[in-house]
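In response to reviewer comment 3 from the previous cycle, which asked for concrete evidence that the modeling workflow produces usable outputs, we include below a single protein chain processed end to end. The sequence was submitted unchanged, and the resulting structure tokens are shown without manual editing.
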Amino acid sequence: MTRKMAKEIQKGSILISEPFLGDPNFERSVVVICQHDKDGTVGLVLNRVSALHLSDVIDINAEVFDMALAVGGPMQPNTLHYIHRLPNLPDAQPIASGLYWGGDFEELTRWLNEGIVLQDEIRFFVGYSGWSPGQLDEEIDKNVWFVNNNAANKLLTLNIDTLWRDILKEMGGKYKMYANYPADPSLN
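The workflow returned the following structure tokens.
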């Protein structure tokens, strides 16, 4: 990919790792970009599930709402992040059409305990992924990541177990071919 493609990164961009990345934090991962500016880039890995549930890390009524947490990335694994489709949550930051990052945590907790939020409207993460200024552009230049700017609005409804493959197939062309690469080519 060219430098031009790297400049297309924006809030809501989706990064799809190349098939043989070799970094266990990002191998066959799909990352949504929440912030991309002069200070660097912040994203959340969408298809890594942790053993923790939301009720394990915050005081919440698990009978009303609970879900498995995703591993957003290797940075600050003791922090909690969330993306959602709740436009009325105060202080939520839009990252794509109908998709938001963060927001008033106390209000969100109240909504969760009252059953106002549905499971397909939100996803929670421990930790995040981060890149210093220019670092992600360099990785894209080296073909570490494929960029998709048209999938963010579907992220909460797609199957996380097949997310990497499904997005590549949807991108078509050469990307569809990558979706079928075996995880270990020596076993092919």
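The two ends are 27 Å apart (CA to CA). We consider this sufficient to address the reviewer's concern, and the full set will be provided in the supplementary archive.
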